[in-house]
Design a protein that fits this description.
The structure is a homodimer. With about 325 residues, chain A is an alpha/beta fold. Chain A has eleven helices and 14 strands. In chain A, about 35% of the residues lie in helices and about 25% in strands. In chain A, about 50% of the residues are buried. At the A-B interface, helix 1, helix 3, helix 4, strand 13 and helix 10 of A face helix 1, helix 3, helix 4, strand 13 and helix 10 of B.
């Protein structure tokens, strides 16, 4: 059997992570990277060629599936439905509230083109969603909890960076240990936003900036920080680059339910050194599934809820039953 | 939409658990229980009627799916393929080494009958298998670990009960904390059987029995105990019934892998007050899936690897995307 031929669109952290994940996939190969930047300005880690995004159409018969590595704010809402007209695609669209709309747009494009698209893949949305669903289906009488972190929140870090006088910043989302333990003990607590997570900020201020004002602005920022216990630490740029350069993340999805008198706890947890590299690894497994669904003629848009798990793994169903069941 | 009509075959712990789980399922109803015992000797918790297993055929058009609640040693290898000729069926066949053979037998019966069977459902095999597969698919460069417990092993308890002079016994499988922590820390240890689990035995000896000999016999029993650190505690029958009557279990499936320089840990863990009630809850979710696959005309034998997760949940795909993704 020939390898599944993959192309990456966008060569940021997610694109590089996808390149790395593909090098571990025995049955897939990376054909090329497409970019909106000047192709000659990019050198890939593995040396695969880089082409302009304008040249994609000419490559249609050389590519089985495309991994879209753009952002959810502006790139994916346009790119995914557009490219779904011509390619099998996978994306990591993570604006939860807009998933239904994104699904509808992409589903129509894929069905018209007799292609497969898989959206909102990664860990949340993604593997966490899968575990929320399984928890509810298996223990309908119960409570669901999602904790995030400890990890860098890109959105919150960006929000701090936009404040006057801030040169750079990193924000860690940290689950509250007592809350986690209470849930794990089956106490089924009702938890406010503040009781679940702490926000830890590391900020590099510009010379002469009013640090007290920056701290106040952060702590009172609606939606992002006002509802949380937030700590603000001012550090040097050198320290930020030295101690806060990596992108760890993780968290837990916990279902606490009961059957009659008996309590049961289901927990799915992740501890990730690199959020983008892990997300990319999930994307690559679902790119494999997308192509297999395409081969079966099961066209249209799918989410993690719609895909038989066996499609994620390179081995045959027989081998999976023998080795992993 | 009308409810999914379910029948239970076998009214032991698993059958009772299935009855309880069905009472929590908004879209399913229990029609009856079938038994090999005298039907009049059984009174169900919810009051549903009990019929002889010989009367199943006459009920064919009243039942959408059957949950088989017999044992894996002798019941299911015969029952599942036989009943798959006439019904949609779900079982919890858990003899790992014989799953391929059980699959082949059942698959043929279901395909010939244009029905659906789902085998080896529960938590191991079952949800643990699912997580082993996902872990390998997402992080191909890594190590897999399964820890069981703390929980009662029925097979090991039975093995002790067969020893001369033993009146009753319970055996707990206990994961070794240091091993678990090492795996969770991403140390990727190579662990022997002895390093992963401890076996704790609680034994009621008959009057005048040679306790030293019983202890020696347990500790030296090949396959079951010889390769483990085993502790044997002799207790009174009263204490056994008081403190060791419940059937807790659980465990963890951990994937420890890396992408380049970065380490990632995926952990799925269960903490169950009642092993049979939880297993039954999983069976009921997959009974729902079995009937939906049947409605779609996707006939044959399936395992947890083959089933789109959305099929487990009573809500529509639209609602699932909106609420859980």
């Amino acid at each position: 059997m020939s390898n599944i031929k993959v192309a990456i669109v966008g060569y940021g952290n997610l694109g590089k992570g996808t390149e790395a994940a593909l090098s571990q996939a025995s049955d897939m190969e990376l054909v090329c990277v497409f970019t909106r930047r000047k192709p000659e300005s990019i050198k890939t880690v593995t040396g695969v060629p880089v082409y302009s995004i304008d040249d994609m159409m000419g490559m249609r018969d050389k590519i089985d599936v495309i991994v879209l590595c753009g952002g959810s704010a502006t790139d994916l809402p346009k790119q995914t439905p557009e490219m779904a007209k011509y390619f099998n695609v996978v994306d990591s669209f993570d604006t939860h509230a807009k998933i239904p709309e994104h699904f509808e747009n992409t589903d129509k494009a894929s069905k018209d083109a007799k292609k497969v698209s898989v959206i909102s893949i990664g860990w949340d949305p993604g593997l966490f969603s899968l575990n929320r669903l399984i928890g509810e289906a298996v223990l309908p009488n119960g409570n669901a909890y999602t904790f995030w972190g400890k990890g860098i929140s890109q959105g919150h870090s960006d929000a701090i960076r936009r404040i006057d006088g801030v040169k750079d910043a990193r924000q860690y989302t940290v689950p509250v240990e007592e809350a986690l333990n209470s849930v794990r003990n089956g106490e089924n607590p009702t938890l406010s936003v503040r009781q679940k997570h702490i926000r830890e900020c590391f900020v590099v201020a510009e010379d002469g900036a009013d640090k007290a004002l920056i701290e106040k602005t952060i702590k009172e920022m609606p939606n992002y920080f006002a509802d949380y216990d937030t700590t603000v630490n001012f550090i040097s740029e050198e320290e930020l680059l030295k101690n806060h350069a990596s992108m760890p993340h993780g968290g837990s999805v916990i279902r606490s339910g009961n059957t009659g008198e008996n309590k049961h706890i289901i927990e799915f947890s992740l501890k990730l050194d690199s959020n983008p590299e892990f997300t990319s690894s999930v994307l690559v497994a679902y790119a494999r599934a997308a192509y297999r669904l395409y081969q079966k003629g099961d066209f249209g848009c799918k989410t993690i809820f719609d895909i038989p798990p066996a499609y994620l793994h390179p081995e045959s169903p027989e081998t999976l039953r023998e080795k992993l069941l």
